[in-house]
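As a representative case, the lines below give one protein's residues and fold tokens.
***
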Amino acid sequence: MEKRNAQTISAKENRKLGLHIAICKWCKAYNEKLKLLDKVFRKTLIEKEAEINEAEIQDFKNKMIEKLNF
């Protein structure tokens, strides 16, 4: 599961993993937790990128205003 999250795995590996997750309750639960964590991390990353972009835009606007007021 970790390998699949970090990189692309082969179709054979993916099938084997899927079969194992289907029969192993521990791995199925772990896989669900990994999915949830991945979703939370992605959402956090997107929010942080938006904050950075907003700060850069505001900084650019402030610099332009300064130059126009020279």
In short: The two ends are 58 Å apart (CA to CA). The helical segments are 2-6, 11-23, 25-69. The chain has a mean pLDDT of 86. Residues 25-69 form the longest helix (45 residues).
